[in-house]
Protein backbone atom coordinates (compact mmCIF):
# COMPACT_ATOMS: atom_id res chain seq x y z
CA UNK A 1 0.00 0.00 0.00
CA UNK A 2 0.98 3.64 -0.23
CA UNK A 3 3.20 4.68 2.64
CA UNK A 4 4.94 7.70 4.02
CA UNK A 5 6.84 6.11 6.88
CA UNK A 6 8.82 3.07 7.93
CA UNK A 7 5.68 1.50 9.33
CA UNK A 8 3.98 2.03 5.99
CA UNK A 9 6.99 0.60 4.17
CA UNK A 10 6.95 -2.55 6.28
CA UNK A 11 3.19 -2.84 5.80
CA UNK A 12 3.64 -2.42 2.03
CA UNK A 13 6.17 -5.23 1.86
CA UNK A 14 3.88 -7.38 3.97
CA UNK A 15 1.01 -6.71 1.54
CA UNK A 16 3.16 -7.52 -1.47
CA UNK A 17 3.89 -10.97 -0.05
CA UNK A 18 0.33 -11.92 -0.96
CA UNK A 19 1.02 -11.13 -4.61
CA UNK A 20 4.68 -12.07 -5.04
CA UNK A 21 5.19 -15.24 -3.01
CA UNK A 22 3.07 -17.48 -5.27
CA UNK A 23 5.07 -16.31 -8.28
CA UNK A 24 8.35 -16.90 -6.46
CA UNK A 25 7.27 -20.39 -5.45
CA UNK A 26 6.33 -21.18 -9.03
CA UNK A 27 9.58 -19.76 -10.35
CA UNK A 28 11.68 -21.75 -7.90
CA UNK A 29 9.79 -24.96 -8.56
CA UNK A 30 10.28 -25.02 -12.37
CA UNK A 31 13.20 -27.33 -13.20
CA UNK A 32 16.13 -26.09 -15.25
CA UNK A 33 15.62 -26.56 -19.01
CA UNK A 34 18.10 -28.91 -20.67
CA UNK A 35 18.72 -28.53 -24.39
CA UNK A 36 19.72 -32.19 -24.80
CA UNK A 37 16.37 -33.50 -23.57
CA UNK A 38 13.62 -34.06 -26.13
CA UNK A 39 11.36 -35.98 -23.76
CA UNK A 40 7.87 -34.53 -23.41
CA UNK A 41 6.56 -34.85 -19.84
CA UNK A 42 3.31 -36.80 -19.48
CA UNK A 43 0.13 -34.75 -19.25
CA UNK A 44 -1.04 -34.47 -15.64
CA UNK A 45 -4.78 -34.70 -15.21
CA UNK A 46 -6.74 -32.15 -13.23
CA UNK A 47 -7.99 -34.93 -10.94
CA UNK A 48 -4.39 -35.89 -10.12
CA UNK A 49 -3.57 -32.32 -9.24
CA UNK A 50 -6.71 -31.92 -7.17
CA UNK A 51 -5.81 -35.01 -5.17
CA UNK A 52 -2.20 -33.88 -4.76
CA UNK A 53 -3.15 -30.40 -3.56
CA UNK A 54 -5.93 -31.42 -1.20
CA UNK A 55 -9.01 -30.88 -3.35
CA UNK A 56 -8.82 -27.15 -4.04
CA UNK A 57 -11.45 -25.95 -6.48
CA UNK A 58 -9.24 -25.25 -9.48
CA UNK A 59 -12.14 -24.71 -11.86
CA UNK A 60 -13.09 -21.52 -10.02
CA UNK A 61 -9.52 -20.22 -10.23
CA UNK A 62 -8.87 -20.60 -13.96
CA UNK A 63 -7.92 -17.56 -15.95
CA UNK A 64 -10.79 -15.48 -17.25
CA UNK A 65 -10.96 -12.99 -20.06
CA UNK A 66 -9.22 -9.78 -18.93
CA UNK A 67 -11.49 -7.01 -17.72
CA UNK A 68 -11.23 -3.36 -18.59
CA UNK A 69 -8.91 -1.99 -15.85
CA UNK A 70 -10.71 1.34 -16.09
CA UNK A 71 -14.16 -0.15 -15.49
CA UNK A 72 -15.67 2.17 -12.86
CA UNK A 73 -16.01 0.87 -9.30
CA UNK A 74 -18.07 2.90 -6.79
CA UNK A 75 -16.21 4.30 -3.80
CA UNK A 76 -18.46 6.09 -1.29
CA UNK A 77 -17.09 7.99 1.71
CA UNK A 78 -19.53 8.81 4.52
CA UNK A 79 -18.98 11.09 7.51
CA UNK A 80 -20.82 10.02 10.67
CA UNK A 81 -18.47 11.95 12.95
CA UNK A 82 -19.83 14.80 15.07
CA UNK A 83 -18.03 17.42 12.99
CA UNK A 84 -16.58 18.09 9.54
CA UNK A 85 -13.69 15.91 8.39
CA UNK A 86 -11.41 16.06 5.37
CA UNK A 87 -10.95 12.59 3.82
CA UNK A 88 -7.63 11.88 2.14
CA UNK A 89 -7.08 9.41 -0.71
CA UNK A 90 -3.75 8.07 -1.96
CA UNK A 91 -3.51 5.97 -5.13
CA UNK A 92 -0.65 3.52 -5.49
CA UNK A 93 -1.67 2.00 -8.82
CA UNK A 94 -4.61 1.83 -11.20
CA UNK A 95 -7.03 4.59 -12.10
CA UNK A 96 -7.76 6.72 -9.04
CA UNK A 97 -10.83 8.84 -8.27
CA UNK A 98 -9.32 12.00 -9.73
CA UNK A 99 -9.18 13.74 -6.36
CA UNK A 100 -6.90 13.26 -3.36
CA UNK A 101 -8.92 15.01 -0.69
CA UNK A 102 -11.92 17.19 0.05
CA UNK A 103 -14.10 18.60 2.81
CA UNK A 104 -16.99 16.43 4.01
CA UNK A 105 -19.58 17.86 6.38
CA UNK A 106 -21.16 15.90 9.22
CA UNK A 107 -23.77 13.42 7.98
CA UNK A 108 -22.78 13.79 4.32
CA UNK A 109 -21.51 11.26 1.77
CA UNK A 110 -19.47 11.67 -1.39
CA UNK A 111 -19.58 9.16 -4.24
CA UNK A 112 -16.39 8.63 -6.22
CA UNK A 113 -15.32 6.14 -8.88
CA UNK A 114 -12.06 4.24 -9.34
CA UNK A 115 -10.78 1.73 -11.88
CA UNK A 116 -11.28 -2.00 -11.33
CA UNK A 117 -7.53 -2.46 -10.70
CA UNK A 118 -7.19 0.43 -8.24
CA UNK A 119 -4.87 0.05 -5.28
CA UNK A 120 -4.79 2.69 -2.58
CA UNK A 121 -5.81 3.90 0.85
CA UNK A 122 -8.33 6.26 2.44
CA UNK A 123 -8.19 8.05 5.78
CA UNK A 124 -9.86 10.87 7.66
CA UNK A 125 -8.15 14.18 8.43
CA UNK A 126 -9.30 16.11 11.49
CA UNK A 127 -9.22 19.64 12.92
CA UNK A 128 -8.16 21.20 9.63
CA UNK A 129 -7.61 24.83 8.74
CA UNK A 130 -8.41 25.40 5.07
CA UNK A 131 -7.51 28.34 2.86
CA UNK A 132 -7.85 27.97 -0.89
CA UNK A 133 -5.82 24.85 -1.82
CA UNK A 134 -4.02 24.58 1.51
CA UNK A 135 -5.29 22.38 4.33
CA UNK A 136 -3.36 22.01 7.58
CA UNK A 137 -4.73 19.27 9.85
CA UNK A 138 -4.11 18.01 13.37
CA UNK A 139 -4.16 14.37 12.22
CA UNK A 140 -3.80 12.81 8.77
CA UNK A 141 -2.24 15.96 7.28
CA UNK A 142 -0.73 15.53 3.81
CA UNK A 143 1.91 18.23 3.49
CA UNK A 144 -0.61 21.00 4.05
CA UNK A 145 -2.57 20.30 0.86
CA UNK A 146 -6.31 19.86 0.51
CA UNK A 147 -5.88 17.58 -2.51
CA UNK A 148 -3.44 14.96 -1.21
CA UNK A 149 -0.70 13.75 -3.52
CA UNK A 150 0.83 11.38 -0.97
CA UNK A 151 -0.28 9.49 2.11
CA UNK A 152 -1.12 11.37 5.28
CA UNK A 153 0.91 11.87 8.43
CA UNK A 154 0.53 9.63 11.44
CA UNK A 155 -1.52 8.83 13.40
CA UNK A 156 -4.34 7.89 11.04
CA UNK A 157 -6.78 5.00 10.75
CA UNK A 158 -6.57 3.61 7.20
CA UNK A 159 -8.83 1.72 4.82
CA UNK A 160 -6.59 -0.12 2.34
CA UNK A 161 -7.64 -1.78 -0.93
CA UNK A 162 -6.12 -3.90 -3.68
CA UNK A 163 -9.11 -4.39 -5.97
CA UNK A 164 -7.39 -6.76 -8.40
CA UNK A 165 -5.17 -9.07 -6.35
CA UNK A 166 -4.25 -12.72 -6.55
CA UNK A 167 -2.55 -14.62 -9.34
CA UNK A 168 -4.97 -13.64 -12.11
CA UNK A 169 -6.22 -10.43 -10.49
CA UNK A 170 -9.52 -12.11 -9.65
CA UNK A 171 -9.61 -11.31 -5.93
CA UNK A 172 -9.91 -8.17 -3.82
CA UNK A 173 -7.78 -7.70 -0.70
CA UNK A 174 -8.79 -5.08 1.84
CA UNK A 175 -8.31 -4.17 5.49
CA UNK A 176 -8.60 -1.55 8.19
CA UNK A 177 -5.08 -0.69 9.30
CA UNK A 178 -3.80 0.77 12.57
CA UNK A 179 -0.17 0.27 11.54
CA UNK A 180 0.12 4.06 11.13
CA UNK A 181 -1.77 4.67 14.38
CA UNK A 182 -5.41 5.45 15.19
CA UNK A 183 -7.33 8.70 14.97
CA UNK A 184 -10.96 7.90 14.07
CA UNK A 185 -13.38 4.94 14.16
CA UNK A 186 -13.80 3.41 10.72
CA UNK A 187 -16.06 0.91 8.98
CA UNK A 188 -15.99 -0.71 5.53
CA UNK A 189 -19.27 -1.78 3.90
CA UNK A 190 -19.26 -3.85 0.73
CA UNK A 191 -21.53 -2.94 -2.21
CA UNK A 192 -22.10 -6.26 -4.05
CA UNK A 193 -21.79 -6.67 -7.81
CA UNK A 194 -23.98 -9.03 -9.86
CA UNK A 195 -21.43 -11.82 -9.46
CA UNK A 196 -21.05 -11.39 -5.68
CA UNK A 197 -24.58 -10.99 -4.34
CA UNK A 198 -24.25 -14.46 -2.77
CA UNK A 199 -21.68 -13.20 -0.22
CA UNK A 200 -23.38 -12.50 3.14
CA UNK A 201 -22.62 -9.06 4.61
CA UNK A 202 -21.38 -10.55 7.90
CA UNK A 203 -18.31 -11.78 6.01
CA UNK A 204 -17.44 -8.48 4.36
CA UNK A 205 -18.51 -5.52 6.51
CA UNK A 206 -15.92 -4.78 9.17
CA UNK A 207 -15.41 -1.99 11.70
CA UNK A 208 -12.85 -0.66 14.16
CA UNK A 209 -14.22 1.50 16.99
CA UNK A 210 -11.73 2.52 19.68
CA UNK A 211 -13.00 5.97 20.66
CA UNK A 212 -15.00 6.73 23.82
CA UNK A 213 -18.71 7.53 23.40
CA UNK A 214 -18.88 5.60 20.12
CA UNK A 215 -19.05 2.09 21.59
CA UNK A 216 -22.44 0.50 22.26
CA UNK A 217 -23.29 -1.92 25.08
CA UNK A 218 -21.64 -5.35 25.26
CA UNK A 219 -22.97 -7.76 22.62
CA UNK A 220 -21.75 -10.89 20.83
CA UNK A 221 -23.46 -10.06 17.54
CA UNK A 222 -25.16 -7.09 15.96
CA UNK A 223 -26.68 -5.71 12.79
CA UNK A 224 -24.95 -2.31 12.76
CA UNK A 225 -23.17 -3.09 9.48
CA UNK A 226 -25.30 -5.95 8.13
CA UNK A 227 -28.91 -7.21 8.46
CA UNK A 228 -31.02 -9.40 10.73
CA UNK A 229 -30.53 -12.46 8.52
CA UNK A 230 -26.75 -12.37 8.85
CA UNK A 231 -25.67 -10.99 12.25
CA UNK A 232 -22.04 -9.96 12.41
CA UNK A 233 -19.76 -11.23 15.22
CA UNK A 234 -18.55 -8.44 17.50
CA UNK A 235 -15.79 -7.81 19.99
CA UNK A 236 -17.70 -8.18 23.26
CA UNK A 237 -15.37 -7.21 26.12
CA UNK A 238 -14.38 -3.54 25.93
CA UNK A 239 -16.48 -0.52 26.84
CA UNK A 240 -16.20 3.24 26.52
CA UNK A 241 -13.96 3.51 29.57
CA UNK A 242 -11.57 1.01 27.99
CA UNK A 243 -11.67 3.09 24.83
CA UNK A 244 -10.60 6.11 26.85
CA UNK A 245 -7.52 4.33 28.24
CA UNK A 246 -6.45 1.68 25.72
CA UNK A 247 -3.63 3.69 24.15
CA UNK A 248 -0.42 3.38 26.22
CA UNK A 249 0.53 6.81 27.56
CA UNK A 250 3.84 6.93 25.68
CA UNK A 251 2.01 6.59 22.34
CA UNK A 252 -0.55 9.37 22.84
CA UNK A 253 -0.23 11.87 20.01
CA UNK A 254 -1.44 14.72 22.23
CA UNK A 255 -1.05 13.69 25.88
CA UNK A 256 -2.87 15.88 28.41
CA UNK A 257 -0.68 18.04 30.63
CA UNK A 258 0.19 16.49 33.97
CA UNK A 259 -0.87 18.56 37.00
CA UNK A 260 1.93 20.59 38.54
CA UNK A 261 4.03 20.29 35.37
CA UNK A 262 5.24 16.92 36.60
CA UNK A 263 6.77 18.34 39.79
CA UNK A 264 5.10 15.66 41.90
CA UNK A 265 4.19 12.06 40.98
CA UNK A 266 0.87 11.62 39.26
CA UNK A 267 -0.09 8.21 37.84
CA UNK A 268 -0.80 8.44 34.13
CA UNK A 269 -4.01 6.40 34.36
CA UNK A 270 -5.57 8.94 36.71
CA UNK A 271 -5.27 11.81 34.25
CA UNK A 272 -8.48 12.48 32.34
CA UNK A 273 -8.03 11.99 28.62
CA UNK A 274 -10.11 13.94 26.10
CA UNK A 275 -12.76 12.28 23.93
CA UNK A 276 -10.57 12.79 20.87
CA UNK A 277 -7.24 11.20 21.77
CA UNK A 278 -5.31 9.90 18.72
CA UNK A 279 -2.75 7.16 19.30
CA UNK A 280 0.58 6.67 17.52
CA UNK A 281 1.71 3.17 16.67
CA UNK A 282 5.02 1.99 18.12
CA UNK A 283 6.55 2.40 14.66
CA UNK A 284 5.20 5.94 14.26
CA UNK A 285 6.33 6.88 17.77
CA UNK A 286 9.90 5.58 17.62
CA UNK A 287 10.67 4.87 13.96
CA UNK A 288 13.18 2.12 14.76
CA UNK A 289 13.77 -0.88 12.53
CA UNK A 290 12.63 -3.14 15.37
CA UNK A 291 9.30 -1.38 15.91
CA UNK A 292 8.71 -0.96 12.17
CA UNK A 293 9.67 -4.54 11.20
CA UNK A 294 12.19 -3.43 8.56
CA UNK A 295 15.83 -4.27 7.87
CA UNK A 296 16.94 -7.35 9.79
CA UNK A 297 13.61 -7.29 11.65
CA UNK A 298 11.57 -7.87 8.50
CA UNK A 299 10.83 -11.43 9.54
CA UNK A 300 7.65 -12.66 11.27
CA UNK A 301 9.77 -14.91 13.48
CA UNK A 302 11.73 -11.90 14.73
CA UNK A 303 9.34 -8.94 14.67
CA UNK A 304 6.60 -9.44 17.26
CA UNK A 305 3.61 -7.29 18.28
CA UNK A 306 4.41 -4.36 20.57
CA UNK A 307 2.37 -3.23 23.57
CA UNK A 308 0.63 -0.83 21.17
CA UNK A 309 -0.22 -3.67 18.76
CA UNK A 310 -1.66 -5.83 21.53
CA UNK A 311 -3.76 -2.97 22.89
CA UNK A 312 -5.00 -2.02 19.40
CA UNK A 313 -5.90 -5.63 18.60
CA UNK A 314 -7.91 -5.93 21.80
CA UNK A 315 -10.00 -2.93 20.71
CA UNK A 316 -10.22 -3.85 17.01
CA UNK A 317 -9.74 -7.61 16.37
CA UNK A 318 -10.22 -7.30 12.60
CA UNK A 319 -7.70 -4.46 12.12
CA UNK A 320 -4.03 -4.59 11.22
CA UNK A 321 -1.94 -3.71 14.27
CA UNK A 322 1.62 -4.23 12.95
CA UNK A 323 3.38 -5.31 9.76
CA UNK A 324 3.05 -9.08 10.26
CA UNK A 325 -0.57 -9.14 11.38
CA UNK A 326 -1.86 -10.60 8.08
CA UNK A 327 -3.31 -13.75 9.64
CA UNK A 328 -6.10 -11.96 11.47
CA UNK A 329 -6.48 -8.77 9.46
CA UNK A 330 -6.80 -9.37 5.70
CA UNK A 331 -10.17 -9.77 3.99
CA UNK A 332 -10.13 -11.64 0.66
CA UNK A 333 -13.21 -11.88 -1.55
CA UNK A 334 -13.90 -12.40 -5.28
CA UNK A 335 -13.27 -9.33 -7.41
CA UNK A 336 -16.28 -7.15 -8.20
CA UNK A 337 -18.49 -4.68 -6.37
CA UNK A 338 -17.83 -1.36 -4.68
CA UNK A 339 -17.17 0.07 -1.23
CA UNK A 340 -18.46 2.51 1.33
CA UNK A 341 -15.93 3.78 3.85
CA UNK A 342 -17.68 5.09 6.96
CA UNK A 343 -15.85 7.53 9.21
CA UNK A 344 -16.98 7.30 12.85
CA UNK A 345 -19.55 4.48 12.77
CA UNK A 346 -21.17 3.77 16.12
CA UNK A 347 -21.59 0.24 17.47
CA UNK A 348 -18.80 -2.18 18.29
CA UNK A 349 -15.68 -3.43 16.52
CA UNK A 350 -16.21 -6.57 14.45
CA UNK A 351 -14.56 -9.94 15.09
CA UNK A 352 -15.19 -11.59 11.73
CA UNK A 353 -11.85 -13.15 10.84
CA UNK A 354 -11.62 -15.07 14.09
CA UNK A 355 -15.25 -16.16 14.43
CA UNK A 356 -15.97 -16.85 10.76
CA UNK A 357 -12.49 -17.83 9.61
CA UNK A 358 -13.57 -21.15 8.06
CA UNK A 359 -16.12 -19.41 5.86
CA UNK A 360 -13.63 -16.69 4.89
CA UNK A 361 -11.14 -19.41 3.94
CA UNK A 362 -13.73 -21.18 1.80
CA UNK A 363 -14.60 -17.94 0.04
CA UNK A 364 -10.94 -17.06 -0.58
CA UNK A 365 -10.09 -20.58 -1.72
CA UNK A 366 -12.95 -21.41 -4.08
CA UNK A 367 -14.56 -18.07 -4.84
CA UNK A 368 -17.87 -19.38 -3.53
CA UNK A 369 -19.74 -20.63 -0.46
CA UNK A 370 -21.44 -23.96 0.04
CA UNK A 371 -25.04 -24.20 1.19
CA UNK A 372 -23.75 -25.51 4.50
CA UNK A 373 -21.62 -22.38 4.96
CA UNK A 374 -24.51 -20.12 3.97
CA UNK A 375 -26.69 -21.80 6.58
CA UNK A 376 -24.05 -21.49 9.31
CA UNK A 377 -23.72 -17.77 8.65
CA UNK A 378 -27.34 -17.28 9.74
CA UNK A 379 -26.94 -19.31 12.93
CA UNK A 380 -26.22 -17.07 15.93
CA UNK A 381 -25.19 -20.03 18.09
CA UNK A 382 -22.56 -20.99 15.54
CA UNK A 383 -21.42 -17.41 14.98
CA UNK A 384 -20.70 -16.79 18.66
CA UNK A 385 -19.30 -20.25 19.46
CA UNK A 386 -15.72 -20.32 20.72
CA UNK A 387 -13.30 -20.55 17.81
CA UNK A 388 -9.69 -21.54 18.24
CA UNK A 389 -7.26 -19.23 16.46
CA UNK A 390 -5.33 -22.34 15.46
CA UNK A 391 -8.28 -23.40 13.31
CA UNK A 392 -8.41 -20.10 11.46
CA UNK A 393 -5.91 -20.64 8.68
CA UNK A 394 -4.64 -17.42 7.10
CA UNK A 395 -6.90 -17.00 4.04
CA UNK A 396 -4.15 -15.82 1.68
CA UNK A 397 -2.07 -18.94 2.48
CA UNK A 398 -4.93 -21.11 1.22
CA UNK A 399 -5.33 -18.79 -1.74
CA UNK A 400 -1.59 -19.04 -2.33
CA UNK A 401 -1.79 -22.83 -2.59
CA UNK A 402 -4.72 -22.57 -4.96
CA UNK A 403 -2.92 -19.92 -6.99
CA UNK A 404 0.15 -22.12 -7.40
CA UNK A 405 -2.07 -25.00 -8.47
CA UNK A 406 -3.96 -22.87 -10.96
CA UNK A 407 -0.72 -21.67 -12.52
CA UNK A 408 0.54 -25.23 -12.70
CA UNK A 409 -2.55 -26.20 -14.65
CA UNK A 410 -2.09 -23.34 -17.09
CA UNK A 411 1.48 -24.42 -17.71
CA UNK A 412 0.39 -27.98 -18.37
CA UNK A 413 -2.90 -27.62 -20.24
UniProtKB/TrEMBL annotation:
Stated name of the protein: Thaumatin-like protein 1
Annotated source species: Fusarium kuroshium
Gene3D superfamilies, alphabetized: Thaumatin
PANTHER family with a match to the protein in the record: OS03G0233200 PROTEIN (PTHR31048)
InterPro entries given in the database record: Osmotin/thaumatin-like_sf, Thaumatin
Pfam families assigned to the protein according to its UniProt record, in alphabetical order: Thaumatin (PF00314)
Transmembrane residue ranges: none
Coiled coil: none
Amino acid sequence: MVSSSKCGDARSVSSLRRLLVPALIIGLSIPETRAISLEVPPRISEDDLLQKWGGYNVRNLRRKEPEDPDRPVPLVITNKCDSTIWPGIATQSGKGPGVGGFELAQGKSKELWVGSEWQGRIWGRTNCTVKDDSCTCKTGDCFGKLDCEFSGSTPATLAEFTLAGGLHKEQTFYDISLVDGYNLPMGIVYIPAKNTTFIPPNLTNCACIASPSWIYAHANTGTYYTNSSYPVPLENRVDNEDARRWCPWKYLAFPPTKPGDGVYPYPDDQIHRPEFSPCNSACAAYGTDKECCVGKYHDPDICKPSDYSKAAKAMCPDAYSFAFDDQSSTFIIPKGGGWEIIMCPKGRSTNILRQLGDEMNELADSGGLSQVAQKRLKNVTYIISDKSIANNVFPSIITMGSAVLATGLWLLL
